[in-house]
Amino acid sequence: MKLNLQKNFFTCEKKTLIKHGEFKIKAFRYDSGVEALKVENEKCSFIFTPFKGQQIWHFKIDGEEISMQTEVKEPQNTMTYLKNYGGFLYHCGLISFGAPDAEHPHHGEIPNEIYDKAYIKCGEDEGGKYIVLGGELEHNTAFVRHYKFKPEVKLYEDSSVFKINVTIENLRSYPLEWTYLCHINFRPYEGAELIASTKYDSDHIKLYRSEGSAELQDYFDKLEKDFTIMNKVNKSEQVYDPEICFGIKYLSDENNRAYTMQVTDKGACYVSHPADVLTNGVRWISRTNNEDAMGMVLPATGEHLGYENAKEKGQIRTLGAEGKLSFTIEAGYITADEADTVRKKIEGILR
């Protein structure tokens, strides 16, 4: 079953749109005017903005929010990235992402774009009952570029892991330059362990130093001597004020999948991404008096330093005339037993 969403479905009062197995989906509109879906299943709940960027907000496991904390508490009707920056997941690109310049906005044109089409699918397969939240964004600049960006989020009724499929279509008979970054924002867990399918040496980890306090500079020095000190989440011994970014070169399994977890005794925040397509992992951590964010991996096509830097370093991708590509990212929360399985997979990759 497929339901094509219309903006008149959304009012200030929450209304049930769909019940499917253990799924309950309600539609409402924020005071800002942003249309939203509240989705619940057996394990989790979250807010999805079908027309505003297809973003995920307020991702909760058993009622506890595990997405980052910022001063932006709900979706805002703006194109300015940081004025709407409080969500769990944002699609970034496609012309550029990362640092802005005069011609390229912060993290590109798509994070806050208004989608032309949005829909919900309900179904059942060998994995059980599921929903798919998807949409279609068409970007058309005469003589320059014409593409469709089509993301879908699939979730099973007994799961808290999103399967995020991204499709890009070039609608011109000329090559399309493109970039992409998936901005996935967990909350840090004190005492948790960061585990990833990478080696913590200078061949695989790049530290992006920046200006800041003496304490931050001292922590930079410590990291350069031993990158592994970032892997035990401990605010009292670490300095991420205002933020630190790392570049990670991942090792992958036989299916070209790379893995990252933030592991506690209860379970783990989890990401798996296609390392052959999204060849760069950006780790972004911010722990201030007002923000708390564990971007343990933002899978990307390049570094986070903006268009000109990406162009200079050959990190701009090209999609052929009338070409099409798709890839899938997994992001969410897994149980302790599932985390042990992923840990063993990572250990196998590193061997």
How would you sum up this structure, described in words?
The protein has 351 residues and is mostly beta strands. The chain has one domain (2-350): Beta-galactosidase, Chain A, domain 5. It has three helices and 22 strands. A nine-stranded antiparallel sheet has the order 1-9-10-11-12-22-18-17-14. A six-stranded antiparallel sheet has the order 2-3-4-5-6-7, with no helix packed on it.
Question: What is this structure's SSE topology?
Answer:
Blueprint: E1 2-4, E2 15-20, E3 23-29, E4 35-40, E5 44-49, E6 55-61, E7 64-65, E8 89-94, E9 117-125, E10 128-141, E11 145-156, E12 161-170, E13 176-184, E14 193-196, E15 205-208, H1 214-225, E16 244-248, E17 257-263, E18 267-274, E19 280-287, E20 292-300, H2 307-312, E21 317-319, E22 324-335, H3 336-350
Antiparallel strand pairs: 1-9, 2-3, 3-4, 4-5, 5-6, 6-7, 8-13, 9-10, 10-11, 11-12, 12-22, 13-21, 14-17, 15-16, 16-19, 17-18, 18-22, 19-20
